[in-house]
## 1
Amino acid sequence: MTEEIRWILNIALLAPLLGSLAAGLLGKLIQKEGAHCISIFCIAVSFVLSLDLFLQMMIFHSLQPSTLSLFHWALVKQVQFNIGYQVDALTVFMMLIVTFVSLMVHIYSIGYMADDPSNPRFFSYISGFTFSMLSLVMANNFLLLFFGWEAVGLFSYLLIGFWFHRESANVAAFRAFIANRVGDFGFILGVAAVFLYYGSLNYDTVFAATPALAAQGLTMNFLGWHVNVITLMCLLLFAGAAGKSAQIPLHIWLEGSMEGPTPISALIHAATMVTAGVFMIARLSPLFDYSLMALSTVMVLGAATALFMGILGLVQMDIKRVVAYSTLSQLGYMMAAQGVAAYPLGMFHLMTHASFKALLFLSAGSVIVALHHEQDMRKMGGLARRMPITYVCMLIGALALAAIPPFSGFFSKDLIIEAIQQSTLPGHGLAYIFVVLGAFVTALYTFRMVFLVFHGKPRMSPEQFAHVHESHWTIVLPLIFLALPSLVSGWLFFEPALQGWFGGSIHLLPSHNVLPALLQAYPNPEDFMIHAFHSLSFGLALAGIVAAWIGYVWAPTLPQKIANFLSWPYQMLLHKYGIDGFYDWFFGKGGMNLGRFLWKVGDDWVIDKSCVDGSGLMTRVLGTVLRGLQTGYLYHYAFAMVAGLFFILGAYYLVS
């Protein structure tokens, strides 16, 4: 059985890599049709095998958790580094999500990228991206985790800058690369700290030794502060998670990822790179559970991201950027759940979000294709009559995002709000205020988008509107498949998420475990729905939808009047709180000015003029002086020798 599982895991992991290599290396030979077929077939194989593992472990319970070692990578000072798989509920759960969304994106891309001349390269990149994410979630040690972590960063750079002939795409790709390097610097320091104190990078070894290390209360000096060892590890590892999952202050790259093709936006935002940080904290729950400071930091920063990044979605006019800021906000909810030690709820929201966020992005892409790649919502309107399937699918995704029962996002998101309210961790009160206000903001910007795009009068010429039609079946079919889990997944997985569905793969200390209280209060989804109709978050979500209808259907001139009246806050939101501008000024221009200073002063003046030119000048001066001593007369040389002899004797006499 073990050997069979090993083969299943190997094929599930390597099939996307095979598809990536085939599409990339043989693209000119097999053309775009061959690239489609090979890469989609390989992803489908990986999805079917992931589904099989999911059913065996989490439905039929015929597969037990285990750790499978593949090979020895290195031996350093008696420490052996192994590469292997962690086979447990958390792994198969993530494998299923990643492969399902990736398969839908691959199929969708056939129609969306049909006219792109670099079609095989695109399929090579997205298959490689899927392979990288699977490496990350299947790892049984920090070494393979780090490989997958960096590989998804590499492929995100390639995909965001896919249309490299655009300057804006190159800038966005570079920004994503730099922001993630900042976070990954903290991440690799955290991995180094783990190795320093545990002497191993294997999850099982580290997790087994953590209670004893926590009991010792060891501290270390870090930048002049004495910090608890486990707290330091968790905060450094969270720096990497903040970069990958775009949490404040490393959120700046995610909005720019819209420069890539829309299918990439769906893949990055729904199931791959941005969820890596959320998954990593759940995987490392045996570490994070022993640091209240780290948990509180994750909770408050996540809640702040949920609110303040969502507010930025209120002023966006690009349809993809509205959905992008919704991703930032929802990632904040997931992180807040991880910070309150409700890891299963964070993963629950990750799952529901993967389906409805991919649905929203791909629905937005359907609109963009129908309007010949127009993304400005001010040039849309009335499209529900021309694109009914896309409209219904986007409406389902919007209701799920706004957490309206019984759609999937309601169960996962409102459980997180309830968990934060019942928590006793430091900072939970502030986090609760943020996430509750975020419910209103989420509903407002989501239905602002729906009303601007699909309702009201068309804001385009009658000729343009007449040519708008529903998208090709390769675009519409994935929307339908994604709409189904957006409808029912929250209802189906509500009870398992509260009942320890992930088993021993997620660690929960009883001292701050809020899940038993939630399960006792809401033993089934029906009870939770009844409670929701009296909850503050549900009322605020409805208020957000009503406010969007008033502002963008009933009185469409009202938002502009509010923007004119509140011009300073409105401009602040348009400039993204000034954070991007500050980064560009301080790090971008500051780095350029520092480089220019080092060039002009250090290189040009100190090195060139002082050292290089100065040494040449000194040589010439000394040469001129010494050349004057070479007269050619014998008595001059005799005099110099006698004088030198007297100088040496005099010096010897004085010393002795």
## 2
Amino acid sequence: MSWWFGGPLSEQGELFWSLSPGWILPAALSVLIAAAWSLRREGPLRLVEAACWSLALLTALIGVADPVWHEAEGRTEPGRTVVLVDSSRSMGIEAQGLSRGEAAMRAVSSLGPGVDIYSFGTTIKPGPPSAWDDAGTDIGGALEAVADRYLGQQLRSVVLLTDGIDRGGLRTDDAGSLSSRVPSLPGPLTVVQVGEALGGVDHAVTDIRTGGFAFLRTPFALTAVVEGQPGHELPVTLRREGRLVDTQRTTLDGDGRAEVRFEVIPNAVGRFVWEVSIPDEVADTIPGNNSHAVVVRVVRDRTRVLQVCGSPSYDQKFLRLFLKEDPSVDLVSFFILRTHDDFAAGWSPQELSLIAFPYERLFTEQLETFDVVIFQNFDFKPYFERDPNGLLSNIVRFVRDGGAFVMVGGDRSFDLGEYADTPIAGILPVRLGVGATAVTDAPFKPSLAEGGHQHPVTRIAGSLEDSALAWSRLPELDGMNRNRGLVEGAAALLEHPNVTTEGRPMPVLSVREVGEGRTMALMTDASWRWSFSEAGTGRGNQSYLRFWKGALRWLVADPDDRRMVAQPSADNVLLGESMRIKTVVRDAGFNPVPGARITGMVAAPDGAEVAIEGVTDEMGVAVSTITPQVQGAHRVRLVSEDRGAAETVFSVVTRDPELAEVSPDEAFLKRLAQAYGAQGAIRLPGEAINPLVDDSAERVVDEQRTVALSSMPVMALIMGLFAGLAWWIRRRHGGR
């Protein structure tokens, strides 16, 4: 009705006339003259006609006088009613041709004027919902927002319309603890349940709790939450990317809920899809929620290092001390060893102070328990009495499967250790076989190679400039093992300033990726001087520590820190939704590679493959978009010509998490209403809303307001009505 008067009018306003009083009298006389003129005509209805003309002209006079209704600042008005409408996707579920959201808005229309409407899902917005598409429901957050926005005011009523499928955390509380968690509202709360429980039984895997990541070789738990018919027994199966891991049977409790705990030990770092499922049953109303997948990232808790040294030395001592003091390193070190010649000399074990070197067990049974193997000035022949090539081949397989290997120089390393014709030579970043000139004894200061400026191993300071300056300040080294240059695919990080091989500076420090693993060759046994001499100048030994720490981080790099990395835009994607796969390509020095052509496949669980391709931009990044069509774990495998390969994994689910549970939670809504005591009430489907109200609630309006009554539609209606009626009477009786 307020529209007819140009807007809502408060009872606490005053009427003002804009027209000067001097004009009102002439206007009134004009009305009287017009009325007298209409009486001149003879006829049975001339008095009715005169009255109609008078009322029409009087209405026009009022309009000309421009009446204004003024409402002053600080006036009090009745308290408002706040309505919260759930806009989550579960409100879009239809029953008998009407969605829950539409039913909620019909109920809102019955509340009348003075209503502030808000829609809420994961956040709250003013106004009614434009669609039922929010990804979640946070009832507690919506109530807190109302308490904050109307702080210090009195509300006549607060009405909450929802199906009760709350994902904000309130539902996990019982009635007692819920009372302490819900916010204090500025008005009574009426909870209106929208939607009725679905018929049939719905068994579902509603959640998997993992913590988000796990540690390599350390047991971790996946706890699956299963809900359904109370007392029902179900087999619950755990799979990793389609491969069966474990199956357990569980019985749902009196509330129709059970938690199933699986304990697994990851044996590789990276991202893996774990899926928990229950069998589909004929009576299950929503079989799409019978499985739940989650991506778990496996990381290293500690880096397990095996350090094998041919003899004690300063270099061995400094590196061993660094590794022992690093809390992230689990070190196993051998550096005073018995050779098989010691046993052949006839000495008994009690007469030898040297420990027995368990080389066979280390390089067969226990090799896979390490992340990094360091040969530091170690010649294998005096120690590997049985099957030396077989043991070295085990190290090669260890590297190709993802391990790391480091060889440090000295008089028992590289060519001096007779590694040129062994399997180890095939994984080193430098070529061996230099002949008689296996070493150079002249002191030298290595220089950064082109690939060493940005590589994480040689970035020993924050910026490129500071890192280069730090390397220039380090002392000279005492010579190095010679080599024949880099193998294909390797990168030099430090070079000799004046010794060359095949026309190029001889590598002093070089790195290489071999299969899934990495190798590093340091052609000197004097890196300890970077610690000892730098500390003597008063600058500490940070360069030495940062060098070896950076080397370890690079050697045991996770899949996301390789030269070629594939990254999905989401760990879990809904079936039929598009997603992006970002590929990053870097060279051996970790510089971006623009223009690299990317090709590969996305393999679905059913064996189907989708080809993807792209070209990297100036930042070495290529992005491909795909739309998965099959549920389950998808593995991405990409290659970039000679730049390497990358793999990643993501999960495709058939259900929307918001629709994993679709039956309204009447029990929770009742607990929520009870948490407010006498200030709370619940209305179930089929009941009239009839909200709780506080009739004493009022609010103070801190603003002035003016409504021009001359523009009231009702005035135009009155004037038109009486003028039209007078004209009709006049024409009816022969007037003009």
## 3
Amino acid sequence: MTFAGTGRLLRFFLRTDRVRIGAWVLGVIALVGFTAASVKGLYPTQADLEKAAEPLYGNAAIIAFAGPTYGIDTMGGQIVFQIGSFGYATIGLMAMFLVGRHTRADEEAGRTELLRATVLGRNAPTTAALAATTLALAVTGAAITLIMLGLSLPVAGSIAYGMAMFGFGLFFAAFTLVTAQVTEHTRLAYALSGVGIGVAYGLRVIGDIGSGTVSWLSPMGWAMQMRAYANERWWPFLLLVGGAGLLLAAAYGLASQRDLGGGLVPPRPGPPRAAPWVTRPAGFALRLQGLALAGWAVGLAFFAIAYGSVAKDVADLVGDNEDIAKIIAQGGGSLTDSYFATSLLTLALIAGGFTIAAVLRLRSEETSGRAEPILATAVSRPRWAASHLAVAAAGSLVVMGAIGLAMSITYGVSIGDFGDVPRLTGAALAYTPALWVLAGVTLALFGLAPRATAVAWAVLALCLFIGLFGQLIDLPRWIVDLSPFQHVPAVPADSFRLGPVAALTAVAAGLCAAGMAGFRHRDAGF
């Protein structure tokens, strides 16, 4: 029986992943909850909602970045619009990582082979992983609906939005099951799923700023076409569920055509002799992480283009709303410069994901057994660890540089003047030391408490919470100061100061030194 043992395996997955699943669910719920609370605080009256909605209609840049302007003159519609594409992308990533962990990742690590040695059907791991993810998505969708109902919003719109988020996540859970059959490497499976989310977003953008036809080719477009709080449509949910069903059938079919541990597309054989630069620790680390670095740089540059295209109209978008102006204007410069500072902070926080993932590659190489043959040669532990740390540090600089260039060039095209390119690029690079602090925290955990390296993601989540919601909910100053990003001068709205940047660099160096010392004196593989 191909499904034998599915129930028991599902309980096992839920038990072992309870912290990870809980973190994802709470993260998405927090995103929706705090955004909803902030929107309600910013627009307390119907007149405020109508004034805020007026400049958004027909603004192609805003529509491309957030989504179609359905019902934005209502409280529910404005909340859905503000969460926008970012909310759907987040729940899509949640589905991707939860499914990938117990399919391709377990298979690559050899855990699935051990499980299959028991009385376990061929399709049981796939089914149990999908069931666990579906349960997490259902809880998330139900919680989103309850949050909206708690704000006294219409029942139909609240249910529609919860269903749309659930349906989009379910679609990409099934999509990840397909990518897990194609390749035998977890990172490539995630990359393919991430590209799928990006394509869904791109098709939605093309359609929404055009006639709308192309949006029907995108699952993100299907979710948004449910039109929560704007004369709801229910049948697009069937497209999401039906698409997920077709992908699931394809995943089962493809799984039956491949060997356990392998992929449908075998890895391309490499050259008989490696290039000289690959034989060195730094070159090998870059070879392993180069594709991820390029993906992060291109992806965040795309978001920076969206931010830069809106900057020219930021004054019109804010209008006379003093509350929004206060939130954006965190520095002492013009409203446009303050908008750039806030945008760069947001993108730098997202870039923290690359920095942490690049350093954590050390842990994955260690636990998979691939580091041991390297360390058995003349390569020392510090040199091996430093090679991946260098990729994280230099890669952070590259990613922030790409963000600054993309944002500044787009802004220059919109106003016909490229004089701000050096200034905005420099402002983006100013956040690099804060990313280095994240790299230092991750390396310190790797060297001193390797089993607790997941705490690095909790640190990033805290920084995101402080950066996005700290001012809205008026957090105490000592909590705000916990985030290294809050110590970076808010350039270009504020003047650049070398002192805080140098202090962050020193803190990062100290954390890295502690991590290196801990790694030198502990057992490898534990």
## 4
Amino acid sequence: MPPQQRTLRKAIGQSYNLLDDGERRLFRSLGVFVGGCGLEELAAVSAAEEKAPGGALSPALHALVGKSLMHVEATPSGAGRFLLLETIREFALEQMRAEDEEDLLRQRHYAAFLQLFRTGDGGLRGPDAVAWLARLEPEQDNLRAALRWTLDQRRYADMAWLLLAAAWFWFHTGRWQESARWTAQLRPHREALDANLRLAVLMNLYHVSRASEEFQPVERFADELMGLLEVCPDKVMHAEAWLLVGSYCGTLPEASAAWERAIVCARAAHEEPGLGPEFGVATDLDFALGTTLWAYADILIEHGEFARAEPLLTESSKLFQARGIRYATANSLGAAGRLALLQGDMEKAHALLHEAVTLARELNYQRLLGESQSVLGLVTLYGGNVLEARRLLEESLRLCLDLNDGWFLGRVCTYLAETALWEGELKEAERWLAQSLAYHANPRWIRMDQIERLFVAARLATAQGTYQRAAALFGLAERVRGQIRYELVGPTRLLADIALATVRAALDPALFAEAFTAGQQLSLEEAFAAIVASSSVTGAPPLLSQLSI
């Protein structure tokens, strides 16, 4: 080693030699922690009581601090966090291996963080979610170290349990890609798991599949999922599985059948004992029922089925409030805000969406921010505050890029196209519209997102003076709108009517009728391909270029 490193190592060794046997054992235990640890985890790994009577730190900890081998940082909660400099940690690891303690200490490290994340998993779905988020956030490096150890040691069941314990924290904080990466590494070994554990891991794969191309198309796992359900006794896991199956069905009736079955299973779970909390969110009864009701209501709203959606949304909101799950309450607020927008009540929509977004920010709930903040941006635009709308949408775009979710990205790009069109920036609107199709152009379901995109495209074509194409797009938009119960309201209706009147006035009536009818014969795939092909602007929109995607 270079002279300065030899000098540092000698100094560390001299300090270590001054410790007694108990202090040395404690020092070696600290080597397995990455990024420090709390007192409870340190005590679990060192297998010693590290607090003296009265709550003071033990003499062993004081000795490590006094000899500059360890330092203590105060956390926001007031608890101490114990850290080693990386050079000192490497020395501790060497001593641990020399004493043949590594396997024992790694097992204890794994067990300590499995316990922590299991406890935190339930806490995240309760009134103390903010405190648990703060408690778990600093332990990400320790979590990764424990997962890496299980994988290296081929302890696949242990890895699966830790993945399930951390899954909801990752999902909540938007770390979908990280969850997907670890799940992908476990997936080839899932045959080594028992049926219930394998089913829970497979359901987590469904949850994070949108962030991983490796899992696409996720429908290819459906037979495996159904086979595992046949031998699983837990009705909550059945409910969760059917919710996931419904999310990937090809039509609304198929999805409705799956979600109604999920609701039946969740209600039946009250009468039958199930698996334990170690399975995490997959066996959380009230949460599963509330989430299924909310998800079903949300998709019904997207299809204009407002009357069917409202009682489901109300019931889910009551379940979440009774449980104290504030971020799930924010989900219900976001869906209610979208419903108000589609019913034309802009003031109510803004109030509900603003409350949902504020709560999601407080709770670091990235998924809801990705979904609802862009809708708040659209409502803000319709309220006339263009600068604030653009700020909200650009912030949403950055978030959705981090989440790597094509559906959210497609929506926010559509709303940015609407904003540019509102400002008369036609080339920018064209860029954003093409980008929205690049992110999410799969029209398996007729949803409001597709209809909104079509009306933006039709109005853009009108502003560009390509009236025959505009007439065809209006024809397709009206046909698709008629396939679900979607009525244009508020500013959307006014803008569409003005553009359609402009197209009618610009074209001979026979030519307009011909183009409008031709558009009604198009499929969504053909229309989206034509929009991209007809784009006269090349290159990414300015903001996307700045974000280097």
